[in-house]
Amino acid sequence: MRAKQQDFKLYDGLAYWVVRFGRLMQQDLAARLAEHDLNDRKLGVLMSIETSHKETPSAIAAYMSIDRAVVARTLKELREQGLVQHYQDLSDGRSRRVVLTAEGRKVFKLGTECARAMNEAFAAKMPQGLAAQVRQTFRQIATASGDEAESAVAVVQNTQVPGPRSNAVRN
Fold it and tell me: Phi first, then psi: what are they for 161, rounded to 5°?
């Protein structure tokens, strides 16, 4: 039993290579997004608003599984960049909602194009068809583990830009 533990090397583990590959992809995406004054957190918030119809900081935080304070800071940065605006919800006067501005929708589209280009660049380094197999396998594993893989995939693949969806007065 002890010999097997000694034979195991960290770089032999699947987790090591998944994490390493993920980091390489994150670094590539970060470089692409930086050209548009974006980062993965900002793009995630823009995606949550635009494609998943999350319009409150709490809904965005829950959807992205990040702290609400991080979302609030990110929304402030996006508002200062002119990419989002807040508005008062008519059905609940206490609630403020957020929506992408016209410029925000343009930048969102640029960000999704960066993500698409990064994915295509890494897929091109793989043998024909392997990227699709890996994607399908990871989705199956995530789904079997109780993750909302289908929602995440839909967000990444959807680049349509719908308009505002709620009953509100914009400020």
Answer: -120, 85
DSSP code at position 101 = -
29 close to 118: Cβ distance less than 8 angstroms = yes
Q: Which residue has the higher pLDDT, 6 or 159?
A: 6
CB 72 within 8 A of CB 96: no
Q: Which residue has the tokens 């893989």?
A: 149
Q: Identify the band that residue 158 occupies on the pLDDT scale cut at 50, 70 and 90.
A: very low
CA-to-CA distance for 107 and 12, rounded, in angstroms?
40
How far from 31 is each of 2, 41, 105, 171, CA to CA, in Å?
44, 14, 20, 34
The CB density around residue 24, as the number of other CB atoms within 10 Å, is 12
Cα separation, 163 vs 123, whole angstroms: 32
State the average pLDDT over residues 114-134. 95
Residues 165 and 80: beta-carbon distance below 8 Å: no
